[in-house]
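Please check this protein record:
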Amino acid sequence: MNKIAVLGAGSWGTAQSILLSQNSAKVYLWGRPEDGLEKIKKTRENHRYMSGVLLPDNVIVSDNMEESLQETDMVVLAVPAQTIRLVAEFMQPYLPSHTILVNTAKGLEISSGMRMSQVLEDVLGEQIKERYAVLSGPSFAEEVARKVPTAVTVAAHRTLIDGEVQDAFMTNYFRVYTNPDVAGVEIGGALKNVIALATGIVDGLGYGQNSKAALITRGLTEITRMGVAMGAYPQTFSGLSGMGDLVLTCGSNLSRNLRAGIMIGQGQNLKHTLNEIGMVVEGVHTAKITRQLSMKMQVDMPITSSCFRILYEGVLPREEVEQLMQRRKKHEIEETAAQIEDW
């Protein structure tokens, strides 16, 4: 590609601009002046989010949206999920009609419960589906920027689009698989943050590896259950954007959601925790809207419900763990068990 624009000069946007510079003649990294763009321009380094990693010469740092989007082949959204609508409204007048739009934000819009593709369709019109893709999977920005071998998934409604995105992102250290399940890839990337929060709470309480393994496994079941109810394919949640991302986010202190959960499990309140983390903890928002959706759709999500009560109702974490352990007896795979019993 001749030109790619990455919107969002945080850690993930910076990492993606470095990655995409290998397959594109020019990459524009767009951000706000308050993101410290002038310093990034002078030093060629994002000291705030990606210290020690230099931007390649063909990465152009800009706070001008029109300049960044002019004649661009692909736009990559690397902003927090809750700002996707605002950024989409800002870029709408400048977005070329042919440009591929790749979303890399993981979350659900808290005000509407929409997935990110639905938010963009709401702002930009139904026709955006024909050139939309979502990139997701186990990928910490810091490791991608430092060229640690990584594998992710891209999903699009059209195979031509996912193939072009795959070509733009693929390098000798960044492998991209394709998947036709846009809903599943988006839901897996959003809901894993809630389970990571819960895993951190268990860590903060001082429970052991048995507890974490059980929580992650049952968390994946919960994600799959909601995903299928929202129109996704169950197989997607066994892949990189489901199980892969869940394992990464629940297992590393690079995860903001995990770190936030640990602090809450240790007795810190939510406000202090978010101030201490200093960056967006998407699972906090996602727990709230997912709880609302699960009640509306009558989907059983006990771990998410427990997270919600701890975060927003002041219930003590240890009490919630006890409640989870004392739930009614169940089959591990209830749907399969029901089929066997019917047979």
Q: What stands out?
A: Confidence is low (pLDDT under 50) at residues 336-343. Residues 182-205 form the longest helix (24 residues). Residues 229 and 298 are 9 Å apart (CA to CA). The first strand starts at residue 3 and ends at 7.
